[in-house]
Amino acid sequence: PTGALALLLGTLLWAPWRALHGAPLAELSGDQDFQLFLHKNLEFTRKIKGDVAALQRVVCDTFQLCKEEELLLVRQDLGMAQAPLEQCRSRTFQAEACFSQIRDGLRTYHGSLAAVLELLPGHASLVETLQLDAANLSSNIQQQMEDLGLATVTYPTEEQGPLPTFSSHFHHQVGGFFILANFQRFLETAYRALRHLARL
After folding, report:
1. What is the rounded distance in angstroms from the CA atom of residue 103 to the CA atom of residue 120?
2. DSSP assignments along the chain, one per residue
3. I want to staple 96 with a disulfide (CB 3.0 to 4.6 A). Which of 34, 150, 163, 195 is the partner?
4. How far is residue 138's CA from residue 187's CA, in Å, rounded to a whole number?
5. Residue 27 has pLDDT above 70, yes or no
6. What is the C-alpha to C-alpha distance for residues 85 and 102, in angstroms, rounded to an integer?
7. Distance between start and end Cα atoms, the chain
8. Mean pLDDT score, 48-55
9. What is the pLDDT of residue 17?
């Protein structure tokens, strides 16, 4: 099932954005404040992606955990879910639904980064910066939704309760690896959604 999931994820991540051009957002796209918000947060998202990549390199160097395909069996044991972003890809793309999922996902990753912090105490400042940036980007999006009068939608998050409990130090290391890998994929999709909106 993991292979099928990876295939599905791959398909979704590369889903053509052409389908989104019927978005009911034309009236917002000319709004200068909205465009400024998009461009600022595109830069911000790019910075966060860079920090996640730096932590991924640390996990690779420190624990020799570098390749996702080598860890898929352990991933199944851990049952780690990706924060959903299907509303940012769907054919019936709506800004409020997509923004809500980006905001909620950022909050989820902000929480799960605590497991990475425990794993890499020597890199606490980078992990804490990442948590702060995730919180700030989430509140930027919340504020922008309020400014635009967009309805806030809260999606039920599956399996996003408290942090997973890892049965061994190795599982904790692999868990940290997948938190970062999932966060990086999440940011890629969020980045593409923001960039799409900026081009409308």
Report:
1. 26
2. -HHHHHHHHHHHHT--GGGGGG-TTHHHHT-HHHHHHHHHHHHHHHHHHHHHHHHHHHHHHHH----GGGGHHHHHHHTPPPPP-GGGTSTT--HHHHHHHHHHHHHHHHHHHHHHHHH-GGGHHHHHHHHHHHHHHHHHHHHHHHHHTPPP--PPPTT-SSPPPPSSHHHHHHHHHHHHHHHHHHHHHHHHHHHHHHH-
3. 150
4. 12
5. no
6. 7
7. 37
8. 96
9. 35
* Alpha carbon distance 189, 119 (integer Å): 26
Question: 58 and 123 in contact (C-beta within 8 Å)?
Answer: yes
Separation CA 184–CA 20 (nearest Å): 23
Q: What is the CATH number of domain 32-198?
A: 1.20.1250.10
**For the segment 99-113, what is each residue's pLDDT rounded down to a tens digit?**
999 999 999 999 999
Distance CA(195)–CA(189), nearest Å, equals: 10
pTM for the predicted model, two decimal places: 0.80
Res 156: pLDDT: 55
